[in-house]
C-alpha cells in the first residue's frame, strides 16, 4: 500500500512538473505564472493532506483492513510544493517591488538582471541534488534586489502607517505584502509597525480566550453559549464552534511566525496561543467523551430509543390513541448524523456505538419510509375534509387493513421484522401503494373542493339581482364538477354529505347576496327606464308614474320569492333548504318597502326640480313682457338672466339616476331650450317694438313741430300764435328727447343680442338735428318778420292817415249842415241820415284798420 501511495504521489508530481514546464516562470506574465503555481501547490498540499487523513485517522479505524503502519507522509511531493512556493515568492517579491518603485528607478532591478541567477535552472525539477544550486541562485537573487529593498522599505512603512487607525486593514496590508515584509531590510525598517501588529495579535488571542471562557458552558444559540449552526446537535455544534476558534488562533500564529518571529514578545505570544489551542483541544475531547458516555449508557436503557433489535416488529398501532408507531426512534436518526459528523471531524467512534450506528444505518432507509407512512396514517384524518371522508372510506379501510395484517410469508402467520429485508420491502411497497392511492384520492378531492370553493366565493360576489345568468352558469359548473367526480368511481351514496355541504355553502352565498339585495334592492333591481317630458302644459313621465311604480313592485316581488325557485346541487327531490331563507329574512321586508316609498318620493322630486324651468311655458309670454319690460335696463336684466339660465340648462343632467330608475331628461331639456329660445325671440321682438314706438313718437313730434315751424306769420296774431306753438314745443322737447336716447340705448342692446338694429334711427337723428336748427332759427325768423311787419305798419299807418284825412275831408265837405236840420225836411233828413250812416260804416272800417295797426 505504501508503494501504491508513492506511485500516486509521483504521478501527481510529474503531472504538476509537466504542466508548469510549458511556462517560462521568470518571463511570462505574473498573473499567469501565479495562477498555475497556486494550482500546482494546491495539488501537492491536497495529496499530502489526503495521505495524512487516510493513514492517520480513517484507515486506522477501518475494521475490515486496519492501517497498522505509521502515518504516511509523501515527502518528495511535499518538498516539490515548497519549491513551487519559493518560486511564487520570488515572482511575487519582484512584482511588488515594481509596484512601489517609480518608473525611473525600475532599471535597477531590470527583469533580465534580477532573474539572471536562475538561468539554466529548472525550478520545478526538484530533487536533493539540485537543491544546493537552487539555494545558491536564490542567495544571488537576494543580493541583486537588496538595493531595491532599501528604497521601498520607507515607502512601505509610510503606506502601512497611513492605515494604522484601522487594525483590520493594517493586518490585511501586512498579509498583502508579507513576501516583502519577510525581507530582512524591510523587516528591520518596519520594526515599530510589526511590534504594533504583534500587540494587536496578543489582544486578539486574549479576546478569543475570553469569548471561549464566557460561552463554553452555555447552551448553543443563546447569548451566553456557543454560536449555533444549522442541523447540528449540541455536541457537534460545540466542537464545530471551538474548531472555528482554533482556526482563528492558528491563523494568528501563522501570521506571527511568518512576520514577527524575530520580535522579543513573539515567544510569549506563541506560548499563550499554543496554550489556548491546547485548551480548545481539551474542550473538544471533553465534549466527545461526554457524548460517548451518554450514548453508551443509553444503549443499555431500552427507553432511550437507541436500542433496535433486528427481530423486533417494525411498527404497531397504539392501543390508547390508535396512532401508528414505528419501532425506530428519532434518537437513532440523530445518532447516525452525530456519528457521521464526528467521524468527519476526526474522532474515533467507540466500537459499541459504531455497531449500533451501523445497524441503525442498515434500516435507516426503510425506517424513514415507514415513518413517512406512519405520519401519513396519523395525520390523514386531519388532511381529509370532513364531508369527503365517506367518499374515501374504502381506500382508508384497505390502507388500515394492510397495517393491521403485517404478516410475513404466504400464510401470513409471522410478523414482519427488521431482519426480513425481502418481506419488509414488499410490505413497505404495499403500504406505499395504499398510502399513495389514498393520498391521490384525497389530493384530487381536495383539489375539487378548492375549485368548488373558488366558484362559490365568486358567486358570493355576483350580484343576485343583475347577474342571475352568472348564478345559473356557476350552479351548472358545480353540478358538472360533481358529475365528473362521480364518474371517476366515487359512489353517489358517499357523495351525499359532500353535496349537502355544498348546498349549505351555496345557501350562505345565496343568503349573503339575498341580504345584500334586500338592503339595496331599490338600487340593484333591473334598470327601469323612463322619459321626463312636457306635454299638455305639464311635466310628466313616459311611461306614466303609476306604470313605473307597478313595474318596480313587480320586480321587487319576484326577487323576494327567488329562494323558492332556487335548487342546489343535492339529491333531486330532496327538501330544499333554500325556501326557509324568505322567512329568516322577513324582517328586512319593511326596510325594502320603506325604501321603495322613499324612491318614489325622490322620483316625484325630479318633477319638482324641473318645474321652475317650464313655468314660462305656462304663461302668455307676450303679455308678460309688455307688462313688465319698459326701460332698457329691464331688457338687459332679462337678456342677462336668460343667458345665465341657458348655461344652467346646459348643466342640467341628461339623465337622472334614482336608484334603479333611469330618467331620461333630454326630452324636457329640449322643451326648456325651446321655451328659452321662444322667450328670447319674444324679448327681441318686444325690444324692436319698443324702439319703433319711441321712434314713431319722436317722428310724429318732429314732423308736427317742423310743420309748425315752417309757417311764416304775417300778422301780429299769427306771430302770437307762432310764439305760443314754439313755447309748447319747448315744453315737450325735454319729454321727447330722452325717448331718443332710450331708443338709441335699446337699439344698441338689440344690436348686441340680435346681431343688428334698426337703421331708421339714424335718419330720424338727422331729422331731429334739422328740428333743433329750426327751433334755434325760429325766433330770428319771428324778429325778422316783426321788422317786416313794422315796416308794413308804418306804410299802412301812412295810408291810414291819408285815408283818414281823406275821410275827414270828405266828411267836412259832405256832412249835413245845421240848416238842413233846421229845415226839418224829412227827405233831406233821410238823405242826411243815410249819408251819415254810410260815413259811419266807412269810419268803422277805418277804426278796424286802426285797431289792427294798434294791436
Q: What is the number of helices? A: 29
Overall average pLDDT: 82
Strand content: under 5%
**Beginning-to-end CA distance, first to last residue:** 181 Å
Which stretches are low in confidence, meaning pLDDT under 50 for 5 or more residues running? 408-413
Task: Characterize the main sheet.
Answer: 4 strands, mixed
Structure description:
The chain is mostly helical and about 850 residues long. The chain has five domains: about 1-185, no CATH class; about 300-455; about 495-620, no CATH class; about 670-815, Methane Monooxygenase Hydroxylase, Chain G, domain 1 (Up-down Bundle); about 815-855. Helix content is about 70%, strand content about 5%. Strands 6-5-8-7 form a four-stranded mixed β-sheet. Strands 1-2 form a two-stranded antiparallel sheet. A two-stranded antiparallel ribbon has the order 3-4. Strand 1 and strand 2 (about 325) form a beta hairpin. It starts with a helix and ends with a helix. The model is unreliable at about 410-415 (pLDDT under 50). One of its GO terms (molecular function) is dynein light intermediate chain binding.
Q: What tags apply to this protein structure?
A:
5 domains, two-stranded antiparallel ribbon, dynein light intermediate chain binding, 4% strand, dynein intermediate chain binding, 855 residues, elongated, 29 helices
SSE inventory with pairings:
Blueprint: H1 2-21, H2 30-58, H3 75-100, H4 111-114, H5 131-162, H6 167-176, H7 178-181, H8 184-189, H9 191-215, H10 234-259, H11 266-299, E1 315-317, E2 324-326, H12 330-344, H13 351-383, H14 393-404, E3 407-408, E4 414-415, H15 421-460, H16 468-487, H17 496-519, H18 521-524, E5 528-535, E6 538-542, H19 545-560, H20 562-565, H21 580-584, H22 589-614, H23 621-628, H24 632-651, E7 655-658, E8 661-664, H25 666-709, H26 716-754, H27 760-814, H28 818-823, H29 826-854
Parallel strand pairs: 5-8
Antiparallel strand pairs: 1-2, 3-4, 5-6, 7-8
Helix pairs in contact: 1-2, 2-3, 3-5, 9-10, 9-11, 10-11, 12-13, 13-15, 14-15, 15-16, 15-17, 23-25, 24-25, 24-26, 25-26, 25-27, 26-27, 27-29
GO biological process, one term: microtubule-based movement
Pfam family, one: DHC_N1
InterPro entries: DHC (IPR026983), Dynein_heavy_tail (IPR013594)
